[in-house]
Amino acid sequence: TVEVLDDRGMTIPSGQTGEIVVSGPNVMLGYWNQPEENKDVLKNGRLYTGDLATRDEDGYLWVVGRKKEIIKSGGNRLSAKEIEDHLLAHEKILEACVVGVADDVLGEAIRAVVVLKPGVEADRNEILHYCRLHLANFKVPKQILFVDTLPKYQSGKVNRPLLKTDEFLATVRKPV
User: Counting CB atoms within 10 angstroms of each CB, which of 25, 40, 75, 176 has the fewest?
Assistant: First the structure.
């Protein structure tokens, strides 16, 4: 069984975003020797996947991001994936990753880390202008950082926690 539930465990209407929750005899029993992690993901015989999705009128699920990747900025809950998808549609951007970083006013500010395609140049203002054309104002990144490559684990996934650190900032090249 696959459901999309809100934070209270209630089924959400079509078009709204909630967490994918699965149950059934084929679902895992838990993480080996990790009781704390089990408490986070296994509740009432259901597996809370951490994936956020909407269900359309035909019953299809559309994954919109990961619960851990939600940015809470200025009272808004934002999907890093949504902002990344818009950045990746830019003709000069090869890769992009979006994270929330501590901000005294907003709670979290949106930091976009961008890898440009080989042989092209772009600056912060060009990318900001593009974002303002395609995103609501509260979804426009406060920071745009340019790097030659995104830091990745051996699995190929981006090391998102590193993108939030001062150590990472030392590796960022100056904007064009």
Answer: 25
